[in-house]
Every structure is written in structure tokens, then in C-alpha cells.
Write a structure and sequence with these properties.
It is a single chain. By secondary structure, the protein is of the alpha+beta class. It has one domain. 18% of the residues lie in helices and 38% in strands. The protein has two helices and six strands. The protein has a four-stranded antiparallel β-sheet.
Length: 108
């Protein structure tokens, strides 16, 4: 999935399959009634600057519902990581820490 956004006057391509975009968390391994809808947290690394843009990719397999990308702030990404910490794998938790959106010191 792709979306072009403008950030500080620069057009940025957010691309869930792009080489500058990294999957940090996916709720797709849910079971039960929500298995046909899921959300992924991605980080886009800018090519020309030491900068990251975080976004959520919302997916649905229900007829009539659209998949879409939602750009979020760093604070939103931090809240998302905290809210989904218990469902995250160790690899996803490591990604949260590596991208600076989770301070593991506050959790057991």
C-alpha cells in the first residue's frame, strides 16, 4: 500500500513494501472475529535526512471497506507501542526500542 504525504514542504512516499519503510508491529496474527481487520505500525526512514516518519497501515478484508495509511506523530507511535506491548513479539518489542518509541525501563 502506498500514500504520498507532504511533510514540512517535502513530498514523501509512504510504502508498506518500500525499501525505506520498516514494519515494526502487526496485529494480523489475531484470531477470532477481528482476524479480517488488522493494523500495522511502520517507520519510514528519509533518504536525505536523519529523520523518521511513523504511520499506521489499516487493513480489511471485508467487502466495501478500504485499506488506508494514516500518518501519525512520534507521540502517537509511542502510545501505540505502549498499548500493544503485551501483544508484541520480542522482535517487535526490539523494533520499538530500536526506533526510539518505547523506553523498556518502564515495563516488566
Amino acid at each position: 500500500m502506498k500514500k504520498i504525504v507532504e511533510i514540512d514542504g517535502t513530498k514523501v512516499l509512504l510504502d508498506t513494501d518500500g525499501t525505506n519503510d520498516f514494519l515494526l508491529f502487526s496485529s494480523h496474527n489475531n484470531t477470532g472475529p477481528n482476524q479480517n481487520r488488522w493494523v500495522e505500525l511502520h517507520a519510514h526512514i528519509w533518504k536525505t535526512q536523519d529523520r523518521k516518519t511513523f504511520y499506521l497501515a489499516h487493513y480489511s478484508q471485508w467487502q466495501g471497506e478500504r485499506c488506508y495509511i494514516e500518518e501519525i506523530t512520534l507521540d502517537d507511535a509511542c502510545r501505540f507501542a505502549q498499548d500493544n506491548y503485551s501483544d508484541a513479539s520480542e522482535q517487535e518489542r526490539s523494533s520499538f526500542r530500536g526506533y526510539g518509541i518505547l523506553d523498556e525501563g518502564n515495563y516488566e
